[in-house]
Amino acid sequence: MDTRYVYMDYNATTPLRPEVRDLMVRALDVYGNASSLHALGRTAHAEIEETRANVAALIGAKEASAVYFTSGGSESNNTVFNTMFLIGRKQARRKIITTAIEHPCVLNAAAHLKDEGFPVVFLPVDRDGLIDMGAYRAELGPDVLLVSVMAANNEIGTIENIGEIARLAKAEGAFVHTDATQAVGKVPVSVEEWNVDYLTLSCHKIYGPKGIGALYVRQKAPIEPLIRGGHQENGVRAGTYNNLGIIGFGEAARLAKEELPEYRQRVGGLRAMLRDLILERIPMVRINGHPVHALPNTLNVSFPGAEGESILLSLDLEGIEVSTGSACASGSLEPSHVLMAIGLGPELAHGSIRFSLGRYTTEDEVRYVAEKLPPIIARLRKMSTVPLEELAQEIR
Amino acid sequence: MDVFQWLYSDTVKDHFTNPRNVYDPDRDKDFRPDAEGMVGNIRCGDQMMFMLKIEDDIITDVRWKTYGCASAIASTSMLSETVVGMNIRDAYHIRPADIANRLGGLPENKIHCSVLGDKALRAAIDVYLEQHGRAGEFKDESAQIICKCLNISDKDIEEAVRQGAHDWYTLQEATKIGTVCGSCKAKAEELLHEFVHIYG
Ligand SMILES: Cc1ncc(COP(=O)(O)O)c(C=O)c1O
Ligand code: FES
Questions:
Q1: Are A178 and A169 in contact (CB under 8 A)?
Q2: How far away is chain B from the Cα of A344, in angstroms, using its nearest Cα?
Q3: Which of residues 274-333 of A touch B (CB under 8 A)?
Q4: Whose CA is nearest to atom 4 of ligand 1?
Q5: Strand partners, B61
Q6: What domains, with CATH codes, occur in chain A?
Q7: What is the complex's ipTM, to 2 decimals?
């Protein structure tokens, strides 16, 4: 039995990188409360401010003070939507524009505003996952309070044109938020270039610890605490500082920025290699996501005729860890909302696999996956009730 | 029970990676079934087809195909092994719970997938009966089905109570009743109380 272990689910989360881990082990003893004025507190405070500067640098923010620490992407996104709720319920400008392919934490926060009576629009996307700019322009107007579009999609890797989206929104006086959880550390991210008011990021996607993240808030953009209490983070986020998480975040952010060019090139090359090997060895597949505007590490492939959870578990038996958009795997009866939004038929959506590569992926691992995958797909297709020929035109 | 944990039981893993009686388009070109049944829909992510060869009401050979998850594959493989050599009447009355037990139980969110094989088998037998002017022959004689989702009858509830189930929780543990749509709960609880009163 092969005991190989190949992790290709980096979009779900990443391992803690050793440099960050070492620093965190040392930081276990930094127990001072960063709000205290004595020496211990000051030490913690200094480390936290260093992280803030590193995170600001990673997202191209001029002012470190615009970065607020949170427990992660979900909290950052919810903080923005909660702020819009508090503002919008008192005024006529309260329309929210977001997209059909956001992460569930944005979708559910937006749905909550809808329940509260806010007009909320979930923009459709095209076959590649880019938002429909025509529909977007048509929805824009003086009643729009917030435009929230993710920078890069977690399932298919499509990168949205945030600069242009923000420009159009700003012209109407709306606030702009982007959930950049998947973009940060994989492609250049710049709050200044994009001119967004809010940006979300999460540390566990960049080889740091879980349970820590940040929200960028442009100066003068409104922000209300989701968690009220002490005066930490200028009253925007109460709670004693998570020293350990923040210190780990600082190092992860520093390294992510430093290594970005090398990461893009190397991981992008491996992704292309995996894609080409799959296309070469397996007939009738569809590569999902934008062919150009896509994350360098994310490869989403539909294998019609083979059910996603069966593929996933077959790969798992070979020590390969991936994820799927199949309904069966999620326990619901609906396949991935992202794959449905890009217009895939259920036959393609249920049979999709997301390979997300990362900084520890090797060429050897890519070859191993490309070797194990074809017989798995062939076996499942062979026992399938789905006539492949009938799906041929769906692949396009 | 976690799906992965379940999959890694030796029996399930074996049936998933090496399914029995699965239709092979190359090897089984000459397999001529006497009846076929197809259930499910690819739109919902799973579909199952069962093919039967029947002689004097005995199932002599079977093949099946599926677009389905690991649970559907493993359960149907086990089911297919079980029914060969069986009288179609007995095969018709096989309960998914029996198959699940032979696989060492099933994770709750996988029950929906695993009953597909059983449904396809019944569909095939129904087709066979219809072809022979015996439509519906087994339907009314079977015990009364209480849980439609899982095909659990009043007899099953009675048996579970005799084996020691004494409340809703332990009955569910024994039979998985009411774990899909849940609409059978009121009726099932009524019967449960009745049987607990008799046997308890
Ligand atoms: C696009 C996106 N947004 C938000 C999140 C949630 O981040 P966190 O796990 O830090 O709450 C994730 C991670 O799953 C994500 O991929
Ligand atoms: S009828 Fe019993 S679970 Fe649906």
A1: no
A2: 11
A3: 305-307, 309-310, 313-314, 316-317, 326-329, 331, 333
A4: A73
A5: B53
A6: 6-14+260-395 (3.90.1150.10), 18-256 (3.40.640.10)
A7: 0.83
